[in-house]
Amino acid sequence: MIKKVCLIILLIQFKFAFSQNTTVINFEEKVIVSKEMLQKAPPMLREVIQKQLNNTIVLSIVKFKKNIVYYSNIETNKQININGKVAKKNNVTLMDTETSIRSKKIKIKKDFIKQNYTVKENNKLVTKSLEKVKWVITKKTKQILNYNCYLALTTFKGQKLEVYFTKEITGNASPEKLPFINGVILEYSTATKTSIATQVQFNQPDIKNYFEE
Question: Which of the four, 79, 99, 177, 178, has the lowest number of CB atoms within 10 Å?
Answer without folding.
Answer: 79
